[in-house]
């Protein structure tokens, strides 16, 4: 944290003192009260500073905080993977945007109170709110570039601080606060705020539109099919879906309403088929490459989705595969190289039974094939992910030998990254790919390969992804967020 100039007085807002709560809804309401007061204080003083006069004080406001002190070991239902502190100690979490995370916070705080029989303390933290994040929800206010104002911004307001904007918690580095308390949640408030702003930039949709079930794809065909499915769902009162949101936050509820294409498409166009309780489906077109896959999942992870799946194109590596066949990944070869520092390649990325079953059931339901017949169009096996799109142009002896040793049946540039980041962030993950080319067997991905049969498979593929999410939606939260994704010592919050 950048300390203020000692010559300037520091002004802070009047905020409620820490208070204990045994009701989760009341606790979240107090978090909202503190957050609103802090943001209002910062935005009002920032707006006043834009008049040009150099402020004669430094303005600082703090994120709200949840704190609980557990004094003894508590016997917890061994089936649970979250909702409790692992051992005695003090645990804290800074919180941002309680309005956006209300349902999540009430759920997690409620579990903590119920499992330990203790109140949670709600009050201001010691982490300042950066002015950039405070004004993010104010369209009329923008933080100018350095040098535009008549005073150095950092002299008057707090700015983002990398010491609290990182992935140390989820990466298992076990950071402690200055007071010795341990983390209660997987992300700090500044880390969450950073990702919320990045999501708006990359997807051109606000975080509030994201649903708890996220599909990733790498091809525009899937976006077209998703919009078609969404319009059909909006026309069916029994579907439960209420709206479709596209880039620039355009929202439609009428299946015949236009969904304008932005003049400038974002880097990762995103569409949200909404349902009550954020139980719908979001589709993110991440484009091509592991860097994009990491970027998208790095930021979506702070929303704590219940599942994310990759439904995209891949190269089939077996001669018995046909264009349009499906690949259900049950293992991954990681040669994407974008997560090596965060999650070493020796860490296994296991298949999750709940996801695998949902995907296989969805394939069977949509294709009307079962048992041995299903094997005609779908194979389960290892998916290899690489960071070189033109790997075919290199000497084939090395890559082909490694792929053969790994028993890989498909190759792409995103799936292992998305699965590995799901593992790292404790977000249930899975992969169902569609074979678009067979480079080892002379069928390269060329424009003429997009046959009508292949296009029809893309439509079915998208429907399978959505149907799998609908099956997962019916699963109890404690089952989908299973113990397989939790390490030795975890945060209490999911």
Describe this entry's structure for a reader.
With 494 residues, the protein is an alpha/beta fold. It has helices at 24-49, 102-116, 131-134, 153-156, 189-203, 220-234, 290-300, 353-367, 371-374, 397-406, 415-425, 452-473, 477-480; strands spanning 10-11, 19-21, 58-59, 62-70, 89-94, 120-128, 182-183, 213-217, 241-246, 250-252, 270-275, 281-285, 307-310, 313-316, 326-335, 378-386, 408-412, 429-437. It has 2 domains: 10-189, AMP nucleoside phosphorylase, N-terminal domain (amp nucleosidase, domain 1), CATH 3.30.1730; 204-485, 3-Layer(aba) Sandwich (Rossmann fold), CATH 3.40.50.1580. It has a 5-stranded mixed sheet with strand order 2-6-4-5-7. It has a 5-stranded mixed barrel with strand order 14-17-16-15-18, surrounded by 4 helices.
Backbone structural class: alpha/beta
Poorly predicted regions are: none
Number of strands: 18
CATH topology of the largest domain: Rossmann fold
In CATH's first tier, which class of the largest domain applies? Alpha Beta
Largest sheet: 5 strands, mixed
Q: What does the radius of gyration come to?
A: 24 Å
Indicate the topology.
Layout: E1 10-11, E2 19-21, H1 24-49, E3 58-59, E4 62-70, E5 89-94, H2 102-116, E6 120-128, H3 131-134, H4 153-156, E7 182-183, H5 189-203, E8 213-217, H6 220-234, E9 241-246, E10 250-252, E11 270-275, E12 281-285, H7 290-300, E13 307-310, E14 313-316, E15 326-335, H8 353-367, H9 371-374, E16 378-386, H10 397-406, E17 408-412, H11 415-425, E18 429-437, H12 452-473, H13 477-480
Helix pairs in contact: 1-2, 5-7, 6-12, 7-11, 8-12
């Amino acid at each position: 944290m950048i300390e203020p100039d000692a010559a300037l007085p520091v002004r802070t807002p009047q905020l409620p003192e820490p208070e204990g709560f045994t009701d989760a809804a009341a606790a979240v309401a107090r978090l909202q009260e503190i957050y609103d007061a802090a943001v209002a204080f910062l935005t009002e003083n920032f707006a006043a500073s834009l008049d040009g006069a150099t402020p004669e004080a430094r303005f600082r406001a703090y994120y709200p905080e949840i704190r609980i002190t557990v004094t003894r070991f508590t016997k917890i239902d061994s089936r649970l993977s979250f909702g409790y502190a692992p051992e005695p100690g003090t645990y804290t979490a800074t919180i941002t945007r309680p309005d956006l995370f209300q349902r999540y916070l009430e759920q997690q705080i409620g579990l903590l109170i119920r499992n330990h029989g203790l109140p949670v303390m709600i009050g201001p933290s010691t982490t300042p709110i950066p002015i950039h994040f405070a004004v993010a929800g104010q369209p009329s206010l923008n933080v100018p570039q350095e040098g535009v104002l008549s005073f150095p911004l950092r002299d008057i307001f707090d700015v983002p601080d990398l010491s609290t904007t990182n992935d140390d918690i989820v990466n298992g580095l076990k950071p402690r606060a200055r007071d010795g308390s341990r983390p209660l949640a997987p992300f700090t408030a500044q880390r969450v705020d950073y990702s919320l702003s990045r999501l708006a930039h990359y997807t051109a949709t606000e975080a509030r539109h994201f649903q708890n079930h996220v599909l990733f794809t790498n091809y525009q065909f899937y976006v077209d099919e998703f919009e078609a499915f969404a319009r059909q769902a909006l026309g069916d009162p029994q579907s439960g879906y209420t709206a479709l949101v596209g880039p620039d936050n355009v929202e439609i509820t009428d299946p015949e309403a236009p969904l304008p294409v932005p003049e400038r498409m974002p880097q990762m166009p995103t569409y949200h088929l909404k349902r009550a309780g954020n139980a719908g489906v979001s589709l993110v077109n991440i484009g091509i490459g592991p860097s994009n896959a990491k970027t998208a999942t790095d930021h979506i992870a702070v929303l704590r989705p219940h599942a994310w799946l990759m439904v995209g194109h891949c190269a089939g590596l077996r001669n018995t595969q046909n264009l349009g066949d499906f690949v259900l990944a049950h293992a991954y070869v990681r040669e994407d190289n974008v997560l090596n520092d965060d999650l070493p390649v020796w860490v296994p990325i296991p298949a999750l039974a709940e996801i695998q079953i949902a995907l296989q059931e969805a394939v069977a339901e949509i294709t009307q094939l079962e048992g041995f017949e299903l094997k005609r169009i779908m194979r389960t096996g290892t998916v290899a992910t690489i960071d070189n799109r033109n790997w075919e142009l290199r000497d084939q002896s090395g890559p082909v030998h490694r792929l053969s040793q790994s028993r890989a049946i498909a190759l792409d540039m995103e799936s292992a990254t998305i699965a590995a980041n799901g593992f790292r962030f404790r977000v249930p993950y899975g992969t169902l790919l569609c074979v678009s080319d067979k480079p080892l067997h002379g069928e390269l991905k060329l424009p003429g390969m997009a046959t009508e049969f292949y296009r029809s498979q893309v439509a079915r593929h998208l429907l399978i992804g959505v149907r799998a999410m609908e099956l997962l939606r019916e699963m109890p939260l404690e089952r989908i967020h299973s113990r397989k994704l939790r390490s030795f010592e975890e945060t209490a919050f999911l």
